C-alpha cells in the first residue's frame, strides 16, 4: 500500500467547492471546517510537515485527515459513529409517550407530569422530558384566547389596521385608552438593592396610599404620548382628554382616535363634543380585542419599567413618577411598527375558529 504521506492529493471541482463552502459557512462544525482546510492545503502541495506549519496544527492531524480523505474522499472527513450504551427506549415507547400526552390525562388531574407518565410507560422521567422537548410538547404550559363576538369584527379590524399601515394624508392618528386604578404602593420594608449573585429583593406586603387613573394617547406616527392624570375616568373626563388632544394637534390636521368600546367613550356628552369638533373622528376596536390598540403596548412598557418595581410613599410621588416617565419617553420616542395586515389577522382568527369548532369541542 503506498504511503499516504507521499501520494499526491488531487481534488475534483465539486470536492473543492464543497470543501470551500465548509470553510466559509459559520454553521459548519469547527472540527469539520478544520479538516476541510487541511485537505485544501494538502491539495496545494507540500509535505505533511509543511502543511502543518502553514496551518499551525500538529503534523499528526495533517497525516490523519490526508489519509482519511485519500481513502474515503469527503465521507472520510465526517465523524465516525461513536461507541456507547445501546438504545433502551423503543419506537413504540416514544409513540406511547406522545399519544398519551396528546390524547389522555391521568386520573384526577388535568395534565401529565413527567414522573406520572414515566411510571405509566415504564421509562425514566428524564427520558419523558427528552421526548417532550424533541417534539415540542409542553403539558405544563397553557395560553388563553378569546374570540371576539363583535358582529362588526372584520370591518373594525380592517379600519384600525388600515389606520396603522396606511394612515390618511394630513391627519394624526392616536391610539387612546385609560389605565385605571394605578396604585401608589409603598413596601413595608426597605428594598434591598441588587448585589453580585443576588437580585433586588422586596417585601411581599405593602401599604397603599391611593390610586390614580391615566389617560394616554399614543401618536402612531411619532410614538409620542399625550398623557393626563385624573382621579376618575368618567365620560366627562374622556371628553376633557379629547379637548387636550385637540389643542395639542396642529390646526388643519384631521384627528383619528382609536379607542375601545367602554361606555364612557360613547356617552352622549362625548357625542355632543364630537359634533362641535368635526375634525376628530373616533374608531372603535372590536370587543375583547385590546391587543389591536398600540397604546396597550406602551402601557406594558410603563408597567414594566416604572410601576412594577416602583415604591411610592404618596399619591404625589406616583403622579410625579408618571409625569416624568411620559416626559422621558417623549424625549426619545419612536413609533411601534405594525407589521400584520388585516387579512393576515383575519386568517389567523379563522384558523382558531376552525380548531375550536371541530370534533371534540
TrEMBL record:
A matching Pfam family: DDE_3
Coiled-coil positions: none
TM ranges: none
GO molecular function: nucleic acid binding
Domain Tc1-like transposase DDE: 192-318
Protein name, entry field: IS630 family transposase
Organism: Trebonia kvetii
Amino acid at each position: 500500500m503506498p504511503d499516504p504521506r507521499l501520494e499526491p492529493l488531487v481534488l475534483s471541482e465539486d470536492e473543492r467547492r464543497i470543501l470551500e463552502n465548509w470553510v466559509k459557512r459559520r454553521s459548519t462544525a469547527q472540527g469539520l471546517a478544520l479538516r476541510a482546510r487541511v485537505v485544501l492545503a494538502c491539495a496545494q502541495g507540500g509535505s505533511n510537515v509543511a502543511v502543518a506549519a502553514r496551518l499551525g496544527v500538529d503534523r499528526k492531524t495533517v497525516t490523519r485527515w490526508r489519509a482519511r480523505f485519500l481513502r474515503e474522499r469527503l465521507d472520510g472527513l465526517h465523524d465516525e459513529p461513536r461507541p456507547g450504551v445501546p438504545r433502551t427506549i423503543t419506537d413504540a415507547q416514544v409513540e406511547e409517550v406522545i399519544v398519551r400526552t396528546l390524547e389522555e390525562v391521568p386520573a384526577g388531574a388535568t395534565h401529565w407530569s413527567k414522573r406520572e407518565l414515566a411510571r405509566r410507560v415504564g421509562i425514566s422521567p428524564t427520558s419523558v422530558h427528552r421526548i417532550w422537548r424533541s417534539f415540542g410538547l409542553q403539558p405544563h404550559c397553557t395560553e388563553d384566547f378569546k374570540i371576539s363576538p363583535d358582529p362588526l369584527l372584520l370591518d373594525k379590524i380592517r379600519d384600525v389596521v388600515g389606520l396603522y399601515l396606511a394612515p390618511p394624508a394630513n391627519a394624526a392618528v392616536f391610539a387612546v385608552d385609560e389605565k385605571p386604578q394605578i396604585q401608589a404602593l409603598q413596601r413595608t420594608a426597605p428594598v434591598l438593592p441588587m448585589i453580585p449573585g443576588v437580585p433586588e429583593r422586596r417585601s411581599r406586603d405593602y401599604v397603599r396610599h391611593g390610586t390614580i387613573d391615566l389617560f394616554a394617547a399614543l401618536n402612531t406616527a411619532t410614538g409620542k404620548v399625550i398623557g393626563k392624570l385624573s382621579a376618575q375616568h368618567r365620560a366627562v373626563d374622556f371628553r376633557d382628554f379629547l379637548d387636550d388632544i385637540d389643542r395639542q394637534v396642529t390646526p388643519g390636521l384631521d384627528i383619528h382616535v382609536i379607542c375601545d368600546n367602554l361606555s364612557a367613550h360613547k356617552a352622549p356628552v362625548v357625542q355632543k363634543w364630537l359634533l362641535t369638533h368635526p375634525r376628530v373622528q373616533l374608531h372603535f376596536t372590536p370587543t375583547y380585542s385590546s391587543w389591536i390598540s398600540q397604546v396597550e403596548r406602551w402601557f406594558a412598557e410603563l408597567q414594566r419599567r416604572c410601576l412594577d418595581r416602583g415604591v411610592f410613599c404618596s399619591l404625589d410621588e406616583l403622579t410625579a413618577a408618571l409625569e416624568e416617565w411620559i416626559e422621558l419617553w417623549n424625549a426619545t420616542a419612536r413609533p411601534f411598527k405594525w407589521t400584520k395586515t388585516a387579512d393576515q389577522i383575519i386568517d389567523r382568527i379563522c384558523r382558531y375558529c376552525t380548531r375550536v369548532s371541530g370534533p371534540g369541542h
